[in-house]
Amino acid sequence: MKFVSIIIGSKSDYEVMKSCADTLEAFGVYHELIISSAHRSPERTKDYIINAEKKGAQVFIAAAGMAAHLAGVLASKTVKPIIGVPMSGSALSGIDALLSTVQMPAGMPVATVAIGKAGAINSAYLAMQILALNDEDLSVKLKEDRIAKAKKVEMDSLEIETILD
Fold first, then answer.
1. Nearest to 48 by CA among 80, 19, 96
2. What angle do CA 141, 33, 60 make, to 5 degrees?
3. Radius of gyration of the chain (CA)
4. 5, 52 Cβ separation under 8 angstroms
5. What number does CATH give the domain 3-134?
6. Do residues 52 and 78 make contact, with C-beta atoms less than 8 angstroms apart?
7. How far apart are CA 126 and CA 20, in angstroms?
């Protein structure tokens, strides 16, 4: 079974990353979510990546704050796409995590999204766009979602214009 793996560095990341899982669920995309730390549980992280690939993981999403090496560790252990979600919560409000996630050496790519909830949701969408390359049904769902979002903007605009008239 093909799926998206979400790995969070600590329990404190769960509330934000739940929006990633919820987004995948809304599209019917199977996923797993586990807690594993690049620093505190490196063997667990390595073992999980190996087992997840054997089970069918197609894309990995890694969410971590501060030094945020989780996405980099994943990139070193698999050639599957890695999406990094920098988490806030440090004295630097996630800027440290953003820089740690985005500054990967050449040949070890990590697609990096925004800090926090917007990044969590966008990581789900990016993972689905990757899966949709080989899944026409998912591609159609994503296109329909874009159309619905555009219609909502139009409706919101009409509502404001009516109020302003």
1. 80
2. 65
3. 17
4. yes
5. 3.40.50.1970
6. no
7. 11
Number of other residues whose CB lies within 10 A of the CB of residue 165? 5
pLDDT band at 165 (very low <50, low <70, confident <90, very high): low
Side-by-side strand order, sheet with 82-87 = 31-35, 3-8, 57-65, 82-87, 111-112
- Residue 16 pLDDT more than 90? yes
For the residues 109-135, what does the mean pLDDT come to? 97
- Give the C-alpha distances (Å, rounded to integers) separating 50 from 1, 4, 53, 60: 15, 14, 5, 12
CA–CA dist 11, 21 (Å, integer): 15
pLDDT tens digits, 1-13:
789 999 999 999 9
State which amino acid sits at residue 106: A
Q: How far apart (Å, rounded) are the C-alpha atoms in residues 83 and 112?
A: 6
Cα–Cα distance for residue pair 61/100, rounded to 1 Å? 15
Residue type present at position 5: S
What span, in angstroms and rounded, lies between the C-alpha atoms of 66 and 123? 19
Where along the chain do its domains lie?
3-134, 136-165
CB contact set of 157 (below 8 Å; sequence gap of 6+)? none
> Beta partners for 33?
6
pTM > 0.70: yes
Predicted local confidence at residue 101, as pLDDT: 92
